[in-house]
Amino acid sequence: KQEVTQIPAALSVPEGENLVLNCSFTDSAIYNLQWFRQDPGKGLTSLLLIQSSQREQTSGRLNASLDKSSGRSTLYIAASQPGDSATYLCAVRGGANNLFFGTGTRLTVIP
Amino acid sequence: SQTIHQWPATLVQPVGSPLSLECTVEGTSNPNLYWYRQAAGRGLQLLFYSVGIGQISSEVPQNLSASRPQDRQFILSSKKLLLSDSGFYLCAWSKGDGQPQHFGDGTRLSIL
Fold first, then answer.
1. Distance from first CA to last CA of chain B, Å, rounded?
2. Neighbours of A3 (CB within 10 A)
3. b vs e for A61-86, b when ≥16 Cβ sit within 10 Å of the residue's Cβ?
4. Is B56 in the A-facing interface, judged by CB distances under 8 Å?
5. Which of B57, B98, B102 is nearest residue A32 as measured by Cβ atoms?
6. Cα(B103)–Cα(B38) distance, integer angstroms
7. pLDDT tens for each residue of B39-88
8. Is B83 helix (H, G, I), strand (E, B) or coil?
């Protein structure tokens, strides 16, 4: 069964710093990987989706990379802002319609 | 544009009571629909997904059931709630297999 791990579980950085969030998965046979943002008590907002044939995706200050063979993905956030504070989740899609989620990294950007 | 609505936002129910959570999607047709549960300290777990009216697939054995009476309506139900059913329930939709999933705001369910 696919297992998704996110390290670190929590991260605090000063405003303006660049940062990297990590996601690893045990089964490299994935269709795609999706990064989400979750604000406290709220649903998930999709940030980036990387298909298994792609190496990276970019949206604004966010860049996600995928190394399927090693079972790793990173989410790079440039010039962090207090509004970036949230929990970031990665999820990999295996067969059918199942998304396997990590437990997330709780990011705090300090003004 | 497409939107997804879940209600209620919060719910407190006694053990043994029934449950009905509703999710509707607007602005698209024939979406894939999903129910997830997020338990405290754990990742999201897929409970059910549906690729069409009346078509429900269950990912884990449990005390819950799902139904899709209309194309853009997905309902999560239980006849008798257990304490272990507490959690944050999220509905999601996608245009199809492999497409990004978009989530509602969730329902926080507390069982007393």
1. 38
2. 13
3. ebbbbbebeebebbbebeebeeebbb
4. no
5. B98
6. 13
7. 877 788 889 999 999 999 887 767 899 999 999 999 999 999 999 999 99
8. helix
